[in-house]
Design a protein that fits this description.
- It is built from 4 helices and 6 strands.
- It has about 140 residues and is an alpha+beta fold.
- Strands 1, 2, 3, 4, 5 and 6 form a 6-stranded antiparallel beta sheet that branches.
- The longest helix is centred in the first third of the chain and has 13 residues.
- The protein is elongated, with a radius of gyration of 19 Å.
Length: about 140
């Protein structure tokens, strides 16, 4: 699987943590994970070896991977395991992948990485459901 258009958000993360440590942001500003994200981290997340940079609670951060794409239909925006990505990349022409790090105890969350995967080929045209009436 080859990823394209990779964007690493490490600088934005560092800036946010610097603002937190300098007192320009409070922990309430940065530890604001939505309940859906916390559930996704619990059931679909993949543990990392990195500790939380905010609460240092002893639990490691969890990565939650989301996939978006028109070809996915209703399952666009769903949290997925990274082991599923190669099969999706081989099946669809273009998907956007977003990786969010989450600390479940304190609610810290930050977008860490985004990239595109897929075959890169034009989307296959669907056959029209409408059939021409016989004259």
């Amino acid at each position: 699987m080859r990823s394209r258009s990779v964007i690493d958000y490490a600088l934005a993360r560092r800036a946010m943590l610097a603002d937190l440590r300098a007192g320009r942001l409070s922990s309430l500003d940065v530890c604001d994970a939505q309940p859906y994200l916390l559930r996704a981290a619990k059931f679909h997340g993949e543990p990392t070896k990195k500790p939380c940079p905010v609460c240092r609670c002893g639990e490691n951060l969890i990565h939650v991977t989301y996939t978006y794409g028109d070809e996915l239909g209703d399952s666009s925006g769903r949290a997925r395991a990274t082991r599923e990505l190669p099969a999706l990349a081989a099946r669809y022409s273009e998907l956007q992948v977003y990786v969010v790090e989450v600390c479940r105890p304190c609610g810290w969350n930050h977008l860490t990485l985004s990239y595109a995967i897929g075959t890169g080929e034009p989307k296959a045209r669907r056959a029209s459901r409408r059939q021409a009436a016989d004259p």
